[in-house]
Amino acid sequence: MSTLISNIGLLVAADGERRDAALVIDDGRIAWIGENPTAPAADDRTDAGGGCVIPGFVDTHSHLMFAGDRSAEFEARMAGRKYEAGGIRGTVAATRTATDDELLANATRLVAEMRAQGTTTVEIKSGYGLTVADESRALRLAQQLTPETTYLGAHVVPVEFVDDVAGYVDLVTGPMLDACAPQARWIDVFCEAGAFDVDQARAILSAGITRGLGARMHSGQLGESGGVRLAVELDAASVDHCTFLSDADIDALAAGNTVATLLPGVEFSTRQPYPDVRRLLDAGVTVALATDCNPGSSFTSSMPFCIAVAVRDMGMTPAEALHAATAGGAAALRRDDIGELAIGSRADLVILDAPSYVHLAYRPGVPLISRVFGP
Amino acid sequence: MSTLISNIGLLVAADGERRDAALVIDDGRIAWIGENPTAPAADDRTDAGGGCVIPGFVDTHSHLMFAGDRSAEFEARMAGRKYEAGGIRGTVAATRTATDDELLANATRLVAEMRAQGTTTVEIKSGYGLTVADESRALRLAQQLTPETTYLGAHVVPVEFVDDVAGYVDLVTGPMLDACAPQARWIDVFCEAGAFDVDQARAILSAGITRGLGARMHSGQLGESGGVRLAVELDAASVDHCTFLSDADIDALAAGNTVATLLPGVEFSTRQPYPDVRRLLDAGVTVALATDCNPGSSFTSSMPFCIAVAVRDMGMTPAEALHAATAGGAAALRRDDIGELAIGSRADLVILDAPSYVHLAYRPGVPLISRVFGP
After folding, report:
1. Is B352 exposed, middle or buried (0-12, 13-18, 19+ CB in 10 A)?
2. What is the CATH number of the domain that holds B188?
3. Alpha-carbon distance B289 to B329, whole Å?
């Protein structure tokens, strides 16, 4: 079964931008790219109507396996008030008491919402269970939605262990890892003051790597820490947030193979300063953009929204932001089959209801996703 | 033909918020509001699925009658570069050469986009024709899309009149007004340094008022001017932008009957500072939010996006922002049949795919409009 997408006003292909283009999909892969008038026949045909075709977004950071509502916390934060109840631990309590069906229905709805906004690959983390059974359950359910599952037992120290953090690290690197590793591709840790320190993060990621998991990390959200350099040292695929970075962090990222994934939805939804992406790009660091979709600090599921904010508030060009949201995300997942449109790559792509990807920033908040091809 | 909307998780009614509510629409008007379990029968039934029901958005400021593309200008501005070609005058040139069908198709597409994002009333301005024939044509076409049409011959001085501004004011208040008044409800003027000064604005609005048009004004976008006080003096329904206001402007607005309409899409898309809405609200001024949808300074058509930015960057509460985007807009159009949900008001309303309107800010960029009732 082959499909011709004709009449593409602007095609963002791996080898550059092409005007008046067409492409052919065969068995889920891109089989042909060329000029519209010379397009071959195919079993099926879609007219892009002069719209722009881009790779599907690769959203490499989301926390979708949760229950409960935190809109009141958001409202209090926006009003400058402290919100006493809840936080991540409130979500943990609600998630533990939710049924499998409830958790899966909520995450399924959010994945569908993401896809409608052009996301064709999504990573999903555990991290609101924080027991062996609940983390394992979250990953088992997440596997039904994506192959990019991440074990995040080390999201926060649960209330039961506040006086025994070392004991919790033993759990995360022991029985919980045993239960979760078979259902995860990645292991992640929140390495930040108030969560896990560098030594704990090293122990957690190293244990996961030994079990065949790829490493990722949350760090630099609230302040500088040694987490970023540890991520590079351990060859983590990505270190996420990177809002606060030292010169040594930048040097390490530039010398290593770890992507810096920026999450502007967090800064938008918490009124924090945005990360300095220019410093990263100038140093040659590979940058990705992701939503961090979660009920606490960033409940957007919209990669187009993140692109608009990255352009407006972080000073990325529209082309840089699109690249970070597609090829950058693919690099952050160490995937070479997604994130760009070339012969042989997966045909995960989006037809925009706009003549250019620039409109993703030029028309903020406007649903511009006309059609999505992909998994 | 009556319709019951049942199972409303949260209803934003004129007399307050109600949980677990229902309402009945009869002949386009709200006939009944009450508790879900006590809802009467109706010819047709829609289940809101526990979602929130809000009034349809009233977008009182848009420039949809245009042709041409200005995405390159946006891209240059975001990169900090000066863009020499184009500006409003580039849109004027493209609009004059466009056919009626082209202009109407573009505006129709944008109105449909707005409706899909919850807007049930939209005001549309002329202002990219700037000749008798082209302004009249724009209003004739706009009338096919909305009763809220605004004659904005005084948008900018066209190139033909740069050395004879007085001559252009004579045209705007003379033959152009003659041709446009029958097709417009409102007259508007851009009263700002570089556009029209206070004396010219007074002459223009006064001429329109004499012909039975209601007055509106653009002012305070680029700096303080006497425009805001003139708008109040002439009892304009609204003065729009209000980014720069003197204490005297605030006092005048508080004492008068003119709404201050804020357009945060402009500040987002031009990286300008946001207006100080708290100062207006504290003074008792009625505030509206609108998109200013136009190809130059704000090409968003999304009222939810404007609400999210108003909460994040202007410090409005979600309830204040929703009120400004609905009842505030109705006041800015001097309408009492829209903008709130009460017995007898128009059943222009939106079912959200969310339990609360707070989610419009809590979930920025996410399409949350489940269903729209209204014209």
Report:
1. buried
2. 3.20.20.140
3. 7
**What ipTM describes this predicted complex?**
0.97
Q: Which amino acid would we find at residue A300?
A: T
Longest dimension (CA), chain B: 69
pLDDT at position A82, please? 77
Are both B16 and B74 inside the same structural domain?
Answer: no
Share of chain A above pLDDT 90, in %: 95
A113 Cβ under 8 Å from any chain B Cβ: yes
Tens digits of per-residue pLDDT, B164-186? 999 999 999 999 999 999 999 99
**A112 inside 8 A of chain B by CB:** no
Q: Are residues A107 and A127 in the same domain?
A: yes
Q: What is the pTM of this model?
A: 0.98
Phi–psi pair at B7, nearest 5 degrees: 60, 45
Instruction: Give the helix/strand (H/E) hosting B182.
Output: none
CB contact under 8 A, B312 and A269: yes
Residues B181 and B312 in one domain: yes
Answer yes or no: are the C-beta atoms of A289 and A325 closer than 8 Å: yes
What part of B 133-192 touches A (C-beta under 8 Å)? none
CA–CA distance, A22 with A5 (Å, rounded to integer): 6
Q: What is the mean pLDDT of residues A20-35?
A: 97
Who contacts B168 (Cβ-Cβ below 8 Å, separation ≥6)?
B157, B158, B161
CATH code at A28?
Answer: 2.30.40.10
Strand (E) positions, chain B?
2-13, 16-26, 29-35, 44-47, 52-55, 57-59, 119-122, 124-125, 149-154, 186-191, 214-219, 238-241, 259-262, 287-289, 349-352, 369-373
Is the pLDDT reported for residue A86 higher than 80?
A: no
Q: What's the full length of chain A, in residues?
A: 375
- Same domain for B96 and B138, yes or no, is yes
Question: How crowded is the C-beta side of B367, counted as CA atoms within 13 Å?
Answer: 23
Chain A: closest CA distance from residue B322 (Å): 13
Asked if B366's CB is within 8 angstroms of A301's CB, the reply is yes
The predicted-structure confidence for B105-138, as pLDDT tens digits, reads as follows: 999 999 999 999 999 999 999 999 999 999 999 9
Q: What distance in Å separates the CA atoms of residue A203 and residue A217, rounded to the nearest whole number?
A: 13
Q: Are A33 and A18 in contact (CB under 8 A)?
A: yes
| Lookup: tokens for A130 | 């924080």
Under an 8 A CB cutoff, do B75 and A116 touch?
no
Mind telling me how many Å the CA of A271 is from chain B's nearest CA?
7
Q: Which residue carries 């009614």 as its tokens?
A: B13
Domain span holding position B33: 2-56+340-373
Task: Give residue A154's pLDDT band: very low, low, confident or very high (50, 70, 90).
Answer: very high
Q: Which residues of B112-139 are buried (b: 16+ CB within 10 A; e: fewer)?
A: ebbbebbbbbbbbbbbbbbbbebbbbbb
Mean pLDDT of all residues in A211-216? 98
